Amino acid sequence: MLLVYQLNRLAVFGIILGFLTYFTTRSFIAAFFAFLIGGYIDNLQRIRNTQNKQGGQQGRRSAEDIYNYYQSRSARATDVPTTLMALSAAVMKADGKVLKVELSYVKAFFNQQFGHQFSTEHLQSLKNYLNNDIPITQICADVRIHLRPESRLQLIHYLFGIARVDGDVSASELNVIANIASMMGIPQADFESVKNMFYRNVDSDYKILGIEESATDEEVKRAYRKMAVKFHPDKVAQMGEEFQKGAKEKFQKIQEAYEAIKKRRGMK
């Protein structure tokens, strides 16, 4: 009965905020995010109560404690802000140092994606994840179950953005993102495509298209058509503005790789 009461509280506030947003913007996408955010806000008091009970605890917390914290921060298992903060922290800590430029990148993303009024709460979550071991396996398992493949791939694109913001993707950062991608169930070919948009070498244009340099011209054309459909920004139309921006950048990289190969081969 208590669970039903909590869910009703979550739904009522989220529905009210969602309706108000829809009548203001006439956007179902904005209304959907408003519903999630409404539930997130309504959930804050319960989270604070939980944190108060833990107030006497000091020092690092176990991975199990942090996963419980992760779940308590989520209005639902697919709560995007909570997932992003946990995964962001994992990449930021990968090379043993957290850079100010990385923190600025994450903060700017969240301000743009979810609004300035939510950034303080989000950054408090980020600090907690940065100071403790992160249960990546459990979190990735949640993501794999509840998010569509194209949305999971967009998360990887975002994580590479954090890693590359200082001008270089380190080997440790690359390994962490690769492990996250694997645990999310992202096919290796798709991961290689995104990776080579940030971590380039002489074969990157071919790897972005998911083919070898030995591919025929016709295979190059087929690969481009396949990737253009698979990575089209419309695939993540249900996600927010910053995700749309990342999807467009990824789509542009595919086009640039194809044009570079065509030019190199003299294809028409």
What is the secondary structure topology, with strand pairs?
Elements: H1 2-25, H2 28-53, H3 63-73, H4 80-92, H5 100-114, H6 116-130, H7 136-146, H8 149-164, H9 171-183, H10 188-198, H11 204-208, H12 217-230, H13 241-265
Q: What's a concise summary of this model?
A:
The protein is mainly alpha-helical and 268 residues long. The protein has 13 helices and no strands. It has 2 domains: 1-58; 61-265, TerB-like (Orthogonal Bundle).
Characterize the structure shown:
This protein has 13 helices and no strands. With 268 residues, the protein is mostly helical. It has two domains: 1-58; 61-265, TerB-like (Orthogonal Bundle), CATH 1.10.3680.10. Helix 8 packs antiparallel against helix 9, helix 8 (149-164) packs parallel to helix 10 and helix 12 (217-230) runs antiparallel to helix 13 (241-265). The protein is elongated, with a radius of gyration of 20 Å. It starts with a helix and ends with a helix.
Count up the domains: 2
CATH superfamily of the largest domain: TerB-like
Largest sheet geometry: none
Low-confidence stretches: 1-13, 51-58
Distance between the termini: 67 Å
Q: Outline, from the CA principal axes?
A: elongated
Output the number of helix runs: 13
Helical amount: over 70%
Kindly report the average pLDDT value.
77
Rg from C-alpha positions?
20 Å
CATH topology descriptor of the largest domain: TerB-like
Category from helices, strands and their pairing = mainly alpha
| CATH class identity of the largest domain | Mainly Alpha
CATH architecture of the largest domain: Orthogonal Bundle
The string of secondary-structure elements, in order, is HHHHHHHHHHHHH
Percent range for β-strand residues: under 5%
Overall number of strands: 0
